[in-house]
Fold GNAT family N-acetyltransferase.
Amino acid sequence: MDVSINTLTPELFLALYTSVGWEAPCLEQVGEALRNTTATFTAYDGERPVGMVRLIGDGGMSFYIKDFAVIPEYQARGVGTLLMERLEGCIRERIDPGWAVSLELISTKEALPFYVKRGFEERPCAWDGPGMFKMVRR
């Protein structure tokens, strides 16, 4: 298994995105999102793309995990862990020594154990409110 950085195309994004049953945006919208993404990570089994994740953020205090998808037949086989390791390594390379940054996401119910195992806290927690989500349409 190998992970490439910043090679995700809109077409590949859509193939991986829809492989997990998500309703995809149009190709142009994906292209715009990728152009404004901090980094993308694509997992390959040989030549076959099997997973992806996007990292967005401000580079100083906050980063956000978006569009984390592993094709169903490769789930629970270490692909997600590999993608997460590369993503967190990328963040560590981008920030100055001594800095701590917030890494956030909205999880599906099924993926909660995966994230908790990697040190993420569920929201709400004892000291903070829940994560929030809203779609804005035009």
Notes: Strands lie at 2-5, 39-45, 48-57, 62-70, 102-104. The radius of gyration is 15 Å. The chain has a mean pLDDT of 94. The longest helix spans residues 79-94.
